[in-house]
Amino acid sequence: MNKAEKTKVIDGLVSELNANNKIYLADCSSLTVEKVNNFRRACFAKKISVKVVKNTLLKKAIERASDSRLAELIPALKGETALIFTDVSSAPAKVIKEFRGKAGVKPVLKAAFVEEMIYMGDNQLDALASLKSKNEMIGEIIGLLQSPIQRVIGGLENRKGGEDAAA
After folding, report:
1. What are the residue boundaries of the structural domains of the chain, listed by start?
2. Where are the beta strands (DSSP E) in 8-164?
3. Are 64 and 10 in contact, with CB atoms under 8 Å apart?
4. Mean pLDDT of the chain
5. How far is residue 138 from each of residues 61, 88, 133, 144, measured CA to CA in Å?
6. 21, 79, 110, 163: which has the highest count of C-beta atoms within 10 A?
């Protein structure tokens, strides 16, 4: 790869890093081609983008990205790195956990940048998998807000029903 091609790849990575706030880094090394393809298919089905990148190019892209907090991901750039982008915070972690159940110990989570927080190491996989999406959180809040109103309406309906029976 010549310098112009590397620059083009780095510019593309910078654009992707700037456009996403849910970024995962994983290690898929030692997986067979068939297993890697199965992992990619599982990600694709959940609308998760996966690409294997060279660490040196990704490091340069991270250094040029607009969010300086991404620099905290640089220590995780060792070995083979799969760069994963998603719209749903917990989706890649769930796919990794599900895939491991079938295939063993890989892929391994190296690091993640999700909702403006850095998660380092595979031990953070459960925490990431339990994150709720924005829509799930809004649904829970609406449910909590509706609960007292529904109790009042239920109480009024019961009282009205008791008055009809007494009449």
Report:
1. 3-131, 132-167
2. 22-27, 49-53, 81-85, 108-114, 117-120
3. yes
4. 87
5. 34, 14, 9, 10
6. 110
Give residues with Cβ within 8 angstroms of 8, minimum separation 6.
none
Q: Each residue of 101-118: pLDDT tens digit? A: 865 678 999 999 998 889
**Omega of the bond leading into 75 within 30 degrees of 0 (cis):** no
What contacts 114, CB < 8 A, 6 or more positions away? 21, 22, 23, 24, 89, 128, 131
- Of 133, 126, 118, 78, nearest in space to 100 by CA: 126
pLDDT at 54 over 90: yes
Fold (topology level) of 3-131: Alpha-Beta Plaits (3.30.70)
> Any bridge partners for residue 81, and if so which?
53
Largest CA distance in the chain: 91
